[in-house]
Amino acid sequence: MPRPSQRHPIHPDDGPHNALSAPLQGLGPVVASGARLLVLGSFPGVASLRAQQYYAHPRNQFWPIVSTLLGLQGDEALPARPYAERVEVAQAAGLAIWDVYGACEREGSLDSAIRAAQLNDLPGLIRQVPSLRLIAHNGGESARHRRITEALGLPVMALPSTSPANASWGFERKLAAWREAFEQAGLAVKG
């Protein structure tokens, strides 16, 4: 039997979902004391895993949306800054970032390709951050676990995905939905 890190030969009639591969490991939470809004994605895409950065795909609208809501433009805009600075600004604003899944099997970046997903310890994080006021799911796959997050005792919102795969929602429409979450959580919205 092959070790989990080895790929199992696939018969031409088998689909890619039959391949045996090592589970992908997600990223740790970005959270600081005083966080008021926890944004939960599903699982980092390929670009994010490679970079070890949340929302690293250049067409993902997460950082542009956060930047606009915080009133940061030009050289101050988050997409123009190094990742460490983005995280610092997000944390200072009261934003925490994590994913619903801590590990999974997946080919590519699409949520529809996620298999054998393992949930992150969301209750443990909530206990560690009593200042949280709202949990916001970034996209439909994350929101499928709304029942779990609602049981954590905080208000929960489902937001449109910032992923480039969510082309049916334009930037302004996404921005309006995300603005509501920021305001509900008590984050200072300037943009």
Automatic annotation (TrEMBL):
Keyword annotations: Glycosidase, Hydrolase
Keyword Protein biosynthesis in record: no
GO molecular function: DNA-deoxyinosine glycosylase activity
Pfam families: UDG
Occurrences of domain Uracil-DNA glycosylase-like (ranges): 28-182
EC number: 3.2.2.15
Residue ranges, annotated region (Disordered): 1-22
InterPro entries: Hypoxan-DNA_Glyclase, Uracil-DNA_glycosylase-like, Uracil-DNA_glycosylase-like_sf
Domain of life: Bacteria
Protein's UniProt name: DNA-deoxyinosine glycosylase
